[in-house]
Specification:
By secondary structure, the chain is α+β, with helices and mostly antiparallel strands. It is built from 6 helices and 8 strands, in the order ααααββββββααββ. The longest helix has 18 residues, at about 35-50.
Length: about 180
């Protein structure tokens, strides 16, 4: 009886630890409602894996910045872990008002590339300093564009699965 209980405990622990980043995001209530975002991430993760041989889905920690133009419904984002930083722009395929595919255009980030307004924010996000993130954006220029806000998400391994945390900031431009 004790052996059976121990085996079942180990099996449950193993199954819980096998959870992926995408599954954890799919369980998050606010992200789960945004089907376009879920599709963007799924396809961006697949593309990054095939182009750069990096699997964001099993990373210890993944950071995501995502904005969506409210007029064109085009998503823009940045995804990174300790091995790779990518920028993506989705190129959605629609049919009769239904989303069929995201078709993200992925660019790997190299040391000479800039993430423009996000360049100074990346280190603050990696420290997950929410007050620092808000302070950074507050000190930046206000812009008027189709992207009203940016969702900043951190997904990190915790205990026997992944912890999903996020914050939202307004769109911003040049920073001092």
């Amino acid at each position: 009886m004790k052996t059976l209980l121990l085996l079942s405990f180990i099996l449950v622990q193993h199954l819980s630890a096998a959870q992926s980043v995408l599954k954890a995001l799919g369980k998050d209530k606010s992200i789960k409602r945004d089907k376009e975002f879920c599709l963007e991430l799924d396809e961006a993760f697949d593309t990054a894996k095939s182009q750069f041989d990096v699997d964001f889905d099993i990373s210890d920690t993944v950071f995501i910045i995502r904005g969506m133009d409210v007029q064109s419904r085009q998503g823009f984002g940045y995804i990174w872990n300790n091995k790779l930083k990518i920028r993506y722009r989705d190129n959605k395929t629609w049919k009769r008002g239904r989303l069929l595919a995201s078709n993200p255009l992925i660019e790997g980030r190299f040391e000479t590339d800039s993430w423009h307004e996000f360049e100074g924010l990346v280190a603050i996000i990696e420290d997950w300093d929410i007050v620092g993130i808000e302070r950074y954006v507050t000190n930046c220029d206000t812009v008027v564009s189709g992207i009203h806000n940016w969702l900043i998400t951190r997904v990190s391994k915790a205990n026997h699965g992944y912890l999903v945390e996020h914050t939202t900031v307004r769109d911003f431009g040049r920073c001092p």
